[in-house]
Amino acid sequence: MIFKDATRLVIPVEVELKCLAERQRDYPWPKPERCPRCQQCRVWGHGFVAVFFDGIPAAVYLKRFRCPSCRCVIRLRPKGYFRRFQASIACIYESLSRRIGYGSYLPGISRSRQRHWLRALQRQVAAYLGEGFRCRLLEGFLILAQRGRVPVASNLPF
User: Domain residue spans in the chain?
Assistant: First the structure.
């Protein structure tokens, strides 16, 4: 049996964050048809996990499922957000675009957080796309995101 990588265990779904914040655990989450790891047809509810998103003052609860066959935990996450990030992909891209294009940061988001995104993007682009992309960071962001990588993640696999 071939297992897919662990990144597939977070499934992005269409979610209205405002509605999720209001309904919390009563939000009508879609149930995955099968386990993304072992393709078993049966998954069970496995509770919720509290997470924070920018623009929402309190934690919201994301639904989890568990596969009884391979015992993996599947977590649903709103589309438009990278794993482990509170800011939306659009917000991160806008911040980087403004910094790279105009030399200033977005107001309302801490400068240190935006600097973190830029430095992480520079490392990811250099590691995965090569030094030729050093002057084309925004293009590198889009390419890495299309490849399923988080272009502003601080961790590298080496």
Answer: 6-78, 89-146
